[in-house]
Amino acid sequence: MSRYAQLVTLALLCSVALNGYLLLDNIESADAALAEQELALETSESHAEQRRARAPQTTLSQQSGSSNTPDSQGSSSVSDTATTAVMTELNSESISQARAWLAAGEYGNVEAFIQRMSREHFDNPDLLLLEADWLLATQPLSLALTHFYGLLDDNVLPADQQEVLATRVESLRDEAIRALYEGHEWDMLAQFIEPLFQLFPTDRSLILLLAESYAQQQKYILMEDTLASLPPDHPGAEKLRSRMQTAQTENNNEDTFDNSLPDKTLTSRVSLEKYGEHYLVDVNMQGTDTKLLLDTGASSTAINRDVYRRLQRFNRLQMLGLFDVNTAGGPIRAPLVRIESLTLGPYTLKDVGVLVLPRTFSGNNDGLLGMNVLKQFRFQLDQDKAELVLAARN
């Protein structure tokens, strides 16, 4: 072998080794990030039950002027003796430790720390912000935002922190509204806006969004009650009424579950797999193949933890917050994540909100395909051929 060939071979070997190292590093980083977020998801599910087992507590912003503090003993207290000694006073080190617990999903430790420090430091800005982030991680997004707005109204933070918090709150609110609206999650959108509407009863954008979320669920009395907050001749209200009247007329002429779909050239057929009394359908989410249970009784689309891990490994999913939703198995509190693309047959939907089911979810399928996706089509179930017939809505 010539000297030139030897040099080329050596260079190729070095390149392969370097690429392998970088790939391994990326996989390990993704696994670490996934493990951290998975822990946070699991902890948030059990946290609500842990809180119900304790006596009711108030937040720091509600304690101003009070010397009473909840007992910090119990299952959520810090167990490590050395750590407890460090956490007996509020300083940058103890706040950093509490923040580390929060990032790791150790919400019981964070709650115990807040309770312990609240007696002497109920108006400390760092402690108030820690509590706000803890609520954001453990409570429904609407409740956490209500608390954030309370902090802003109390004006207890330094001007720079006040400005940062205000920007963050608006971003959280707008992102959630956009995802729920574009994902046709009308029930969750209404639940999200209702407490905000109580805080801002004259906000016309919230009024119109809440009214439309009711109308999309065919709750027209609630729609009109909400629109009553606007002037009688408000153009947005009139436009919404007109749109809903047109949609209602179309719905009377054609069901969502349609027995008279358009010509075959305008429809697509998606193969289904029999699953007991139900059917599974192939759905691709951001390049990841899944088999979801076709469930016309579910208002939302949901995935199990295994699918979430697969998606999270290659796509850093945006978590919009926790939401309380009703399911066939009862009410659950679940994280809502944004899926950038969801493909069903030849159709691709953008920015779909998908719930991550609790660990207790039983089933061998990857999740549920709910009406927030199916309602975007005229569809028909052909049981003889085990096919889902889809037609795009005008």
Automatic annotation (TrEMBL):
InterPro entries for the chain: Clan_AA_Asp_peptidase_C (IPR011969), Peptidase_aspartic_dom_sf (IPR021109), Retropepsin-like_bacterial (IPR034122)
Gene3D superfamilies associated with the record: Acid Proteases
Organism: Marisediminitalea aggregata
An MF annotation (GO) of this entry: peptidase activity
Signal sequence, start to end: none
Keywords: Hydrolase, Protease
Residue stretches of biased makeup (Polar residues): 56-74
Keyword Methyltransferase set for record: no
NCBIfam families: clan_AA_DTGA
GO BP terms, alphabetized: proteolysis
Region (Disordered): 43-81, 232-262
Keyword RNA-binding in record: no
Stated name of the protein: Clan AA aspartic protease, TIGR02281 family
